[in-house]
Each structure stands twice: as C-alpha cells, then as structure tokens.
Amino acid sequence: MSESTATSVPAAATTGRRLPSPFTALVGYTLRACLPVRRWFGVLLPCAGALLFGWLSAVDSRSAEAAFGDVAEIGLFGLVLPLTCLVIGDAVLGADIRAGTFPLTWLSPVGFGTIVAARWLGGWIVALVSLVPALVLATVVAGIPEGATAMAIAGAAGSAAYIGLFVMIGTAVRRAAVWALAVVFLGERLLGGVLSGIAQISPMWESQQAYAGLADDHGGWRLLRDGTPNGWSAVVRLAIVAIVTLALASWRIRHLKPTGGDE
To answer: How many CB atoms lie within 10 A of CB 217?
Structure first.
C-alpha cells in the first residue's frame, strides 16, 4: 500500500474502533457538557422534595389514598415534576444557546432534527434515572406501593412531554427559564385549572391524569378530572405533546441565528 493510500484510511479503520453515530455522539455530549454539577443540584433538590412530600402524606391522619391525592396533585405533579424538568430541559439546549456555545453544535454537519432529538433524549435519560425513581419512592413512602407502577409510567411520560416543551421554549425566547415558569404556573396551574382545553395539552394535568387512570383501583380516582383523557389515553396525549414540541423546536433551530452569549 502506498503512503498516500495509507494516509487516506480513517483513523477509526486503522485502530479497529467504530466511531459512534452522530446521534449517539450528541446524546453523550449532552450528558457530559450540558449538565454540570450545579445543574445536578438543581435536579436532585426537587427529587429530594418528592420524598419529603411522600413522608408528609404518610404522617397525615387521613387515609393513605386521601392524603396522597392532595400531595400528588399539589406537590408531585404541581411542583416536583415541572420544576425538575425545567432545570433539565433548560440545561440541554436553552442554556447552551444563551451562553453562546451552541454554534459549535449548530455548525456541525448534523441535521437540525437530530440535534434537537439528541438533546431531548439526553435530558429524558437524566429524568428517567433521577426524577422517575424519586416519584416512585414517594409513592411507596406515602403508603401506596400499589401505585408505584402507575407513577413510574406517568412520571416517564410527563417528563418526556415537559422536556420537549422546555426545549422548544429554549429555542424560541432568550429568557427561557422565566417564560417556562410563566407557562407552568400561569398557563398550566392557573388557566389549566379552570379550562379543560388547556388541561388537555398540559404535561402537568395529563401526567396527573395518566396516574389517576392507571392507579384507579388504588386511590387514583380521587385525581380524575372530567373531560380530560386519563390512563393510557393521557400517556398517548403526552407523547403527542412531546413530538409536536420537538418538531417546533427543530423548525425554530433551522431558522436560528446563533450569536454570542449573554451570560
């Protein structure tokens, strides 16, 4: 083999190693670079709060189902789930755009949809190994271990939709965290509490309804809301929300003009 031919062989071929696909590489980059230690504190603190809510439910003098119903609606689905996903969803893309480091990814020879999907998947993996176990443990601590499976499914589906929503917000506005908080507390909690149309596309309400329908025999019926899909229908609705928000984020990324950071 001539010298020119030898030098044209990729390094991976000469060493026998196979390079990861661009999607896999982007997911790995998301886990390594977008979630520093301070972000992990922001993730784990609400997770610890989930266990505290479970304990508060356990020491309530009412029945386990009645006490957990209030704790789940206000604490787990109303605070822990959205706040944890906000920290994760903002970290994987919005913070990168604000810091001015996103052009390193934006200019890479990878499709915009691949970039968004990889960032979302990296964030969802973090939620699956931190938030979802915390929600399940809160259910067990509260004295309703029969609802653990339903809580795991609701937490996984809800976090997928929420991270997609916050990724989309991160691509659309500069102050993504402020807008995300407004969406959660003004849009979902306030307006979604009285308008069924908003609740039906709200990750907060649909996550709660997913648990309510799947754990109906174990006190979940206390959280059921008329006119809103529940159980597996709510899980499907959450999947649709995740897909739509990621599609919008991909469209927005395509028209984005990355600039220097403002942080």
So the answer is: 10
14 lies in some domain: no
Of 156, 142, 27, the residue nearest 92 (C-alpha): 27
Between 123 and 23, name the one with better pLDDT: 123
- 186 to 33, 138, 179, 180, 224: CA distances (angstroms): 32, 26, 10, 10, 21
Phi, psi (deg, nearest 5) at residue 258: -60, 140
Domain count for the chain? 1
At 165-180, the pLDDT tens digits run 999 998 888 888 899 9
Answer yes or no: is 9 within a domain. Answer: no
Domain boundaries, position 205: 22-254
Residue range 148-165, pLDDT digits in tens: 999 999 999 999 999 999
The string of DSSP letters for 196-250 reads: HHHHTT-HHHHHHHHHHHHTGGGTGGGG--TTS--THHHHHHHHHHHHHHHHHHH
